[in-house]
């Protein structure tokens, strides 16, 4: 009996140890299971909310169990009350900590004054150009409709009108002189051919040798004098062309700039007058001041361009008188000597104005002859 009792006691001692081994194996298996089984064992309080300590521990276990390839910096579990119909929501994003606090404390980035955006500069230039174009266009339309006022310098405007009218007349003289030069060139060419034909017949026709010879000499002489006259006319054309298409054109370009400056001046003057007629308060005073500054800038530009035009018109008149005086004397003396048959006077006229004629049939020397 005593031996049987001892065996049962030994079995009782062995059996609890087996239970302990079994419980250890079960805990190991539960630890290897997914975090989803652990979520079922999250303790809750009496009002149906999670305990904070268990919630933080569950978040830590869930972060360890997530794969590293998800690319999530932190994962936060947000659980709602059990009374709500919504389930727990997993929010992926940066976990609020020291890093986020540092980002919130960082202020806006301030660029230095030296750093400028080229696109913004171009946009500002386009804006100023559009505003200036609008005001000038409005001023031009107002003047054409008779509603706007314009600044007029009567003396200067009269000189400009005379210049434009003279330019048209000089252009007409230039066209006629070019036509005369073309026709004279054709006549000289015909006379030269006619002289060659007479000379050829003079050699082949013995009976009319002298008659053909006289005519050949006359036509050659006329062709030579015609070439001299043609040189004088071409020199006249070149000088008048320089006067009309370069000197006068340059002055008229300055006149156009002056007229543009006048339109801008009147446009900003009208804008300032409209602002001065309106109410004066805190909102309009800065606009009036800015308009006054722009008006002053364009007034100075207008005065400068008006002075430039006056100076150029003065010098142009002096140059025009000097050039046309010499060219008109040349044209008259050459035409008179040609039709009078005075070859010496014609040649003397060309020497007086330092005109060198190119010998017919001679070309410029080649580069081998120049070496």
What do these coordinates show?
With 371 residues, this protein is an all-alpha fold. 74% of the residues lie in helices and 2% in strands. The protein is built from ten helices and two strands; from the N terminus they run αααββααααααα. The chain has a two-stranded antiparallel ribbon with strand order 1-2. α5 (118-145) crosses α7 and α8 (285-340) runs antiparallel to α9 (343-352).
Short description:
With 371 residues, this protein is mainly alpha-helical.
**Rg of Cα set:** 54 Å
- The gross shape turns out to be rod-shaped
Arithmetic mean pLDDT: 74
N-C termini distance:
151 Å
Strand order of the largest sheet: 1-2
Largest sheet data: 2 strands, antiparallel
> What is the helix tally?
10
Tell me how many strands there are: 2
Instruction: Please provide the ordered H/E string of secondary-structure elements.
Output: HHHEEHHHHHHH
Low-confidence parts: 1-53, 68-106, 108-114, 361-371
Instruction: Give the strand content.
Output: under 5%
The helix content, as a percent range, equals: over 70%
- Strand pairing plus helix content: what structural class? mainly alpha
């Amino acid at each position: 009996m005593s031996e049987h009792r001892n065996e049962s006691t030994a079995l009782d001692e062995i059996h609890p140890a087996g239970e302990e081994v079994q419980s250890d194996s079960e805990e190991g298996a539960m630890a290897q299971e997914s975090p989803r089984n652990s979520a079922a064992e999250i303790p809750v309080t009496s009002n149906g909310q999670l305990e904070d300590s268990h919630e933080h521990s569950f978040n830590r276990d869930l972060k360890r169990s997530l794969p590293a390839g998800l690319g999530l910096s932190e994962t936060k579990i947000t659980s709602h009350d059990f009374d709500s119909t919504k389930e727990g929501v997993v929010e992926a994003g940066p976990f609020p900590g020291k890093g986020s606090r540092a980002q919130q404390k960082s202020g806006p980035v301030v660029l230095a004054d030296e750093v400028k955006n080229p696109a913004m500069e171009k946009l500002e230039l386009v804006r100023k150009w559009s505003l200036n174009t609008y005001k000038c266009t409005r001023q031009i339309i107002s003047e054409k409709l008779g509603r706007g006022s314009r600044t007029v310098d009567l003396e200067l405007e009269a000189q400009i009108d005379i210049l434009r009218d003279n330019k048209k007349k000089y252009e007409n003289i230039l066209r006629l002189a070019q036509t005369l030069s073309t026709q004279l060139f054709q006549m000289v060419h015909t006379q030269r051919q006619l002289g060659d034909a007479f000379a050829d017949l003079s050699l082949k026709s013995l009976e009319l040798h002298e008659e053909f010879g006289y005519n050949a000499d006359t036509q050659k002489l006329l062709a030579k004098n015609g070439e001299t006259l043609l040189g004088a006319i071409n020199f006249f054309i070149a000088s008048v062309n320089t006067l009309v298409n370069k000197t006068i054109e340059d002055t008229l370009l300055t006149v156009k700039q002056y007229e543009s400056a006048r339109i801008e001046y009147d446009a900003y003057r009208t804008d300032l007058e409209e602002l001065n007629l309106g109410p004066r308060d805190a909102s309009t005073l800065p606009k009036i001041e800015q308009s006054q500054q722009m008006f002053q800038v364009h007034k100075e530009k207008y005065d400068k361009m008006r002075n430039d035009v006056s100076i150029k018109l003065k010098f142009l008149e002096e140059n025009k008188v000097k050039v046309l005086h010499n060219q008109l004397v040349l044209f008259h003396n050459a035409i008179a000597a040609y039709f009078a048959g005075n070859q010496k006077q014609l040649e003397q006229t060309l020497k007086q104005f330092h005109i060198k004629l190119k010998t017919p049939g001679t070309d410029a020397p080649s580069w081998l002859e120049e070496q």
